[in-house]
């Protein structure tokens, strides 16, 4: 029997189940416990990055089980498969972080491989740790069959000495110990409550930022991103997602590439700006766009960031947590404020069946505290900006949400790696006013473009958060705060200006003018470039392949 959707189009899974020569395939399906009914139904792949390698992903298994129930209720046969998680929590501040961004590509590759080889008619994907979210979305776009993305949810904040705290407080506590402002006993008690439940980081860091982006692009059901990981309603929404995917499969879409368009990508970038989200979104959105066949670069994102007001007062630059946003209406409430501000392309379709504008229009009105109304923004432009200049001709990223000072000029203090910088910062071998430069950490040069939360949190913990600046061709965690500029392009290994700097060179940062310059004559930089040498490092097979294939951060650091 040929399986067809309601438009009369044959389904991909026919290649597995139809005809005399597929008797062996059907025999294998029967070995899994499937009978005629299950074999003759559409097939859905249920993707999970769940496991016990990080608290982020430990909430996924019951949500996957709920989605399976929804698919079965919708007349679709589910097939569960897993892909990897490289947890930033465990790989931070050592060479293991090189594999974090690499894992995004591995996840997308693995989804493409399984879904294509097994001819699934649709996909539902569960992710919770930073790179797993864009990785799953990228895989769905490659396969381009009816798909729904589901986020696993954030942890609840901890409670320490009468105030809510999160993991960034623990990171900064380490710096306070090195500065002599906190005892190791205090840090130990802080550590005990820093992450009190399973789930992703509790603020508007990378995971929550990309979950919000998924809703804004229409790949996720509305008001699912900010539900806490431990909330039972997540199971209900996962079951709803399974049922909805079954409908999409029978109806033939909309397909992911019909959802992820230039207009919906603009909505995602605007949502990042409106909430002071992670700078990593400017790396992941171009990569997602690339899989959708849409050109959407850092330059495009810069324009959106500059025209979008900051509307949500979220950690790390603001006061509130993911759970607080959920309690006042979640992502739809932000979208409503964006709609009022004229910052939303409202005609974009979504997996919900409504347009994004219809979802925003029906949403709870902004509460005025967690989410501001459009006539009372926290700032006139978004919480993340793009800088350019002689130090970053291809651009660089700075999160300005929460910054007290938007200009900085000072002498460069150059480090050849994150480890060198951490060693100097621990020993307080830097001065107020310095501009710390960490190079050789870009997509190719790292390789893998490591996050620098460890060193930035040390600086903040030492009370030097806005007294120095930090610039890198690597990237930052969504939890990073301060005058921290990442994604500098071209990177050092590509003979960018960051690779030519010397101690004492004066660096000028002007977040108002959006400029990042080194005050060294161009002729001098050319002379340095002529004398520049590079040192080859012996890399593992995975990193060697990645370094050979990966493109620039400006285009999303994709590998194909």
Automatic annotation (TrEMBL):
Pathway: Amino-acid biosynthesis; L-valine biosynthesis; L-valine from pyruvate: step 3/4; Amino-acid biosynthesis; L-isoleucine biosynthesis; L-isoleucine from 2-oxobutanoate: step 3/4
Cofactor note text: Binds 1 [2Fe-2S] cluster per subunit. This cluster acts as a Lewis acid cofactor.
Cofactor entry: Mg(2+); [2Fe-2S] cluster
Superkingdom classification of source: Bacteria
Keywords on record: 2Fe-2S, Amino-acid biosynthesis, Branched-chain amino acid biosynthesis, Iron, Iron-sulfur, Lyase, Magnesium, Metal-binding
Subunit structure, as described in the record: Homodimer.
Protein name: Dihydroxy-acid dehydratase
Species whose genome carries this gene: Kordiimonas pumila
Gene: ilvD
């Amino acid at each position: 029997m040929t399986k067809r959707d309601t438009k009369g189009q044959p389904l991909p899974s026919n290649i597995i189940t139809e005809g005399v020569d597929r008797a062996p395939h059907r025999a294998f399906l029967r070995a899994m416990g499937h009978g005629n009914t299950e074999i003759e139904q559409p097939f859905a792949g249920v993707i999970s990055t769940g496991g016990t390698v990080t608290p982020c992903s430990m909430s996924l298994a019951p949500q996957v089980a709920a989605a399976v129930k929804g698919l079965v209720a919708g007349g679709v046969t589910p097939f569960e498969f897993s892909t990897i998680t490289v947890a930033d929590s465990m790989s931070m501040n050592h060479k293991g972080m090189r594999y974090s961004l690499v894992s995004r590509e591995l996840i997308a590759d693995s989804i493409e491989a399984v879904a294509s080889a097994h001819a699934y008619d649709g996909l539902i994907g569960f992710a919770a740790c930073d790179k797993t979210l864009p990785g799953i979305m990228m895989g769905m776009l490659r396969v381009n069959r009816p798909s729904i993305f589901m986020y696993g949810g954030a942890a609840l904040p901890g409670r320490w000495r009468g105030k809510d705290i999160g993991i960034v407080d623990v990171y900064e506590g380490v710096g306070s110990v090195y500065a002599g402002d906190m005892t190791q006993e205090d840090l130990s008690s802080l550590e005990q409550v820093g992450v009190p439940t399973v789930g992703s980081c509790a603020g508007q860091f990378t995971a929550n930022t990309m979950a919000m982006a998924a809703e804004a692009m229409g790949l996720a059901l509305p008001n699912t991103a900010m539900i806490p990981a431990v909330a039972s309603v997540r199971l209900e929404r996962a079951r709803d997602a399974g049922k909805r995917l079954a409908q999409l499969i029978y109806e033939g879409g909309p397909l992911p590439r019909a959802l992820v368009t230039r207009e919906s990508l603009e909505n995602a970038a605007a949502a990042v700006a409106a909430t002071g989200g992670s700078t990593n979104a400017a790396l992941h959105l171009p990569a997602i766009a690339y899989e959708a066949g849409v050109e959407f670069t850092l330059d495009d994102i810069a324009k959106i960031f500059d025209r979008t007001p900051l509307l949500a007062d979220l950690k790390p630059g603001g006061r509130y947590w993911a759970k607080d946003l959920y309690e006042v209406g979640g992502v739809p409430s932000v979208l409503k404020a964006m709609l009022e501000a004229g910052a939303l392309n409202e005609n974009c379709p979504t997996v919900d069946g409504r347009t994004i504008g219809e979802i925003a229009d029906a949403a709870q009105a902004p509460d005025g505290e967690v989410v501001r109304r459009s006539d009372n923004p926290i700032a006139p432009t978004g919480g993340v900006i793009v800088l350019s200049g002689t130090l970053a001709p291809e651009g660089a990223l700075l999160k300005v949400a929460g910054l007290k000072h938007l200009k900085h000029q000072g002498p460069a203090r150059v480090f050849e790696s994150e480890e060198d910088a951490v060693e100097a910062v621990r020993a307080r071998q830097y001065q107020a006013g310095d501009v710390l430069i960490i190079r050789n950490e870009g997509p190719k040069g790292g390789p893998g473009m490591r996050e620098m939360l460890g060193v930035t949190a040390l600086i903040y913990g030492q009370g030097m958060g806005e007294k120095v600046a930090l610039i890198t061709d690597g990237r930052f965690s969504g939890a990073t705060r301060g005058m921290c500029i990442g994604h500098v392009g071209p990177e050092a290994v590509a003979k960018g200006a960051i690779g030519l700097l010397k101690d004492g060179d004066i660096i000028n940062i002007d977040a108002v003018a959006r400029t990042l310059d080194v005050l060294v004559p161009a002729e001098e930089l050319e002379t340095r470039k002529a004398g520049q040498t590079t040192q080859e490092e012996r890399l593992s097979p995975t990193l060697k392949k990645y370094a050979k294939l990966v493109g620039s951060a400006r285009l999303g650091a994709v590998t194909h």
